[in-house]
Amino acid sequence: CFGCRKTGHSVGNCPEAKQSGQDELPFAKCFVCKAQGHLSGQCPENSKGLYPNGGGCRFCGKVDHLAKDC
């Protein structure tokens, strides 16, 4: 888990992250900018966001979320 660094669950199901209300991921390392604390989909230096092959949300066109989260 990128939220608590424990095994058995992912950051989306992290009980510690939900309790603290944290949005950042202290144990994640971005492969775009090499910084710690976020994934490449949320990286300000990643112009393609969650869509590495281009494109974007089919509803609004933004690249920072998937269509299911629009």
From TrEMBL:
<keyword id="KW-0479">Metal-binding</keyword>
<dbReference type="Pfam" id="PF00098">
    <property type="entry name" value="zf-CCHC"/>
</dbReference>
<protein>
    <submittedName>
        <fullName>CCHC-type zinc finger transcription factor</fullName>
    </submittedName>
</protein>
<keyword id="KW-0863">Zinc-finger</keyword>
<dbReference type="InterPro" id="IPR001878">
    <property type="entry name" value="Znf_CCHC"/>
</dbReference>
<keyword id="KW-0862">Zinc</keyword>
<feature type="domain" description="CCHC-type">
    <location>
        <begin position="1"/>
        <end position="16"/>
    </location>
</feature>
<feature type="domain" description="CCHC-type">
    <location>
        <begin position="29"/>
        <end position="45"/>
    </location>
</feature>
<dbReference type="GO" id="GO:0005730">
    <property type="term" value="C:nucleolus"/>
</dbReference>
<dbReference type="InterPro" id="IPR042246">
    <property type="entry name" value="ZCCHC9"/>
</dbReference>
<keyword id="KW-0677">Repeat</keyword>
<dbReference type="GO" id="GO:0003676">
    <property type="term" value="F:nucleic acid binding"/>
</dbReference>
<dbReference type="GO" id="GO:0008270">
    <property type="term" value="F:zinc ion binding"/>
</dbReference>
<dbReference type="InterPro" id="IPR036875">
    <property type="entry name" value="Znf_CCHC_sf"/>
</dbReference>
